[in-house]
Amino acid sequence: MTMHPDLSPAGNALLARTLAYGKRADVAATFAVHNPADGSFIGDVADMGAPETQRAIDAAKAAFPAWAARTARERADILRAWFRLILENQEALAEILTLEQGKPRAEALGEIVFGANFIEWFAEEGKRLYGDIVPTHAPDKRCLVLKQPIGVVGAITPWNFPSSMITRKVSPALAAGCTIVVKPAEDTPLSAIALQLLAEEAGFPEGVMNIVTAKRAEAVAGVLTASPDVRKLSFTGSTRVGKILMRQCADTVKKLSLELGGNSPFIVFDDADLDAAVAGAMATKFRNAGQACVATNRIYVQSGVRAAFVEKLRAAMEDLPVGPGLEADTRIGPLINPAAVAKVQELVGDALGKGAEAVLGGTPHPRGGLFFAPTLLVDVRADMAIASTEIFGPVAAVYGFETEAEVIAAANDTPYGLAAFLWTRDIGRVFRVGEALEYGMVAVNETLTSNPATPFGGVKESGLGREGSRYGLEDFVEIKYLALGGI
C-alpha cells in the first residue's frame, strides 16, 4: 500500500493492517473506500452479503452461551483492555476516521476518545445489572426477578460518527453478556475494521464481536431482521430506513433500539446571553459540517434580539476555514457524497426562491468537490422545505418569533423529537419551555454534552429506546420472573 503523506507513521501502519484485515480471504468481492475531501482511493474491503451475514450470526450464536456465562467482572476486564488499546491508538484511529469520513482531525480525535469512554463506562456498569427480590405473596414462596442478556444483537451504524456509534452500541451489548454482529456504513467501513482489530487484541473470544462490511446494506439488514437467532436490532440512521427495519423485525418480534432523524430547534429568548448562545449555535450547527442527528436545524430568535444575534452569528461564521479534515486549520470538512451536496443545495435554493435571504454563503464552496460554503439564511419560514427537512450540511437557518407560546408550537410542529436547545436566563421559562418541548433531550444554556452516564434518544419519529446510561444497558437484557415454591 502506498503511504499516505498526511498520515503519521502510526496512522499509516494501522491503516495498512486495517486494509489487510478488511480483505477477507473467503470473500472474493470487494468495494472501494474513497476520501470525500478529494475523491482519492483509500483501499478496498470485502463486499459481504447474505451468506457472510448468516455466518456471522452463526458465529455470534455459538459464542453466546460461553460469553453470557462469564462473570460481569471477566467481561469487564476484556472491555477495559479494549478501551486501553483504543486510547493507545487514538491518534492513528482519528487519522483513519478523518481520511474516510472527512471531518476535521480534532473532531475525529474527540470522537475516538468519546467512543472509548462508553467502553470504560459500560465495563463498570455491567457489574451492576441488579435484579430484585419481590416481597412474597405467600409464606412458602419467593419471587425473584433476573436480568439476563437478550442474546445475539444486530447493529447497523451510520457514516457520520463511524467510531463512536459502534462503541455506543457494542459496549453495552457485550457488557450485558450479548454477542453482536455489526454492519458499518458503506462509506466508512475502515473505522469499524480497525476497532475490530483492537477488540481481537484485547481478548474477545471468536464470534463475540463480528463486523460485516458491505456495499449494499439491504443484503445484510435483510438477514439480520429475518433471523430468529437475532433477538435485538439497534439502528442509527434515517427515519425512513428505521421504519423499514421496524416492519421487517415484526415477524420475529425483535427488541428494537432506533436512533433516527431529527429536526432540532435552537431557541434564543430575548433575555439570553447572546454571546453564549452564538457559541452554542456554532457548536451545535457546524460540528461535522452539520452532519449530525442532533445538529441545530431551526434557529428561533425572539424579535428583540434577532438583529443582534444574526450579526454576532454572521461574524462568527464568516471566517470558518473550509477544507480537507487532515489540514491543520480546517473547521468545516466535506460533505459525505455528491447526493448530500445536491440535497443541501436544493434546500437552500428552495428557501431563497421563497423569500429567504443568504447573509453568508448559499452556494457550494469555491474549493469545489463536496465542500459547501457555510451559509446563514434569515427570514426563513415554516412553509420552506428546509423547515421540515434534516439539513445535514453547514447551513444555519434563522426564524423569528414573538411569544413563548408561539415558539413552543413552532418547535413542536414536526414528526421528529430528538434534541432541542433553549437559551434563557429566566428560571421559570426554563421549566415551562423545557417541559413543553416534545423532545427526548433538551439542553438549556448548553450544547447537549453527551456522555456515557446520560440517556441519548428521541421521541415521536426520532426513535425508540436509549443509548448510554443504565437505561441503555437495560435495552440489552430480558426480564425473567423466577417463582420459587416449597420454601
From TrEMBL:
Name the record gives this protein: NAD-dependent succinate-semialdehyde dehydrogenase
Active-site residues (renumbered): E259
Residue span, Aldehyde dehydrogenase domain: 29-481
Signal peptide region: none
Family: Belongs to the aldehyde dehydrogenase family.
Keywords: Oxidoreductase
Entry EC number(s): 1.2.1.-
GO MF assignments: oxidoreductase activity
Transmembrane segments: none
PROSITE patterns assigned: ALDEHYDE_DEHYDR_CYS, ALDEHYDE_DEHYDR_GLU
Matching NCBIfam families: SSADH
